Amino acid sequence: MTVVAPKLTLERRLLTEECELIISLDEVGRGALAGPVAVGAAVMDAKGARRRVPEGLRDSKLVTERRRPEVAARAAAWVQASGVGWATAAEIDQVGIMRALGLAASRAVQSVVEQGVAVSDALVLLDGNHDYVSAVHPVPLRVRSVVKADRDCASVSAASVIAKVARDTYMAELHVDHPSYQWDRNKGYASVEHRDAIRSLGLSPHHRSSWAIADAPTLF
After folding, report:
1. Which of helix, strand or coil describes residue 43?
2. For the segment 17-38, what is each residue's pLDDT rounded down to a tens digit?
């Protein structure tokens, strides 16, 4: 199957007609059984939108694990600013996954604000069909939700791969203290080995204990 590279068509139009900056957001880890959810942010202005899309940039799900770090590095160098926001497994248990996604997205936006990005000049481009960030962020945001933006919009693909590499790295670090769950391989998702370890050992502090984990469908 031929994978079509993401374009900058939408970003260029928005930067011409509606805004001075785009803050593109995408989440990773929503369906995992353990670990945080992460949201990547990638900032683009009109000048950046005229630059060539980095080689190999795709939605993180379409980039092999071996290549993701180099693609993420190219993506971070290509955009004007980038960052990752997090919500912990404990926060997911406390407020639910959608509210936790909003917290992570708000923190991702704040991370680029701290790098000098003005949200008053920006349109937030959010992958999916639901705005989960506006209700959480402390100041008003202009948000545009776009289905399949991670596949079709290069700036959102950049946010996706940056977040994916950051979260995968974090899960590999957690694996050192909890090797039986094999998070270095499954990254907290529901592999057969991960569920077998849960049945044998129970839940770690990093599991989303409010979820019906033992009977979760296998994703790998």
Report:
1. strand
2. 999 999 999 999 999 999 999 9
Starting at the edge strand found earlier in the chain, the sheet holding 122-127 runs 81-87, 37-45, 21-28, 122-127, 143-146
Q: What is the pTM of this model?
A: 0.92
In whole angstroms, what is the distance from residue 18 CA to residue 121 CA? 10
In the DSSP assignment, the letter for residue 125 is: E
Nearest to 49 by CA among 83, 24, 84, 86: 24
Rounded Cα distance, 157 and 57, in Å? 7
Q: Is 213 helix (H, G, I), strand (E, B) or coil?
A: helix
Report the relative pairing of strands 122-127 and 21-28 from DSSP bridges. Answer: parallel
Task: Give the chain's mean pLDDT.
Answer: 92
Q: Which two three-digit tokens encode residue 53?
A: 């899309």
CA end-to-end span of the chain, whole Å? 21
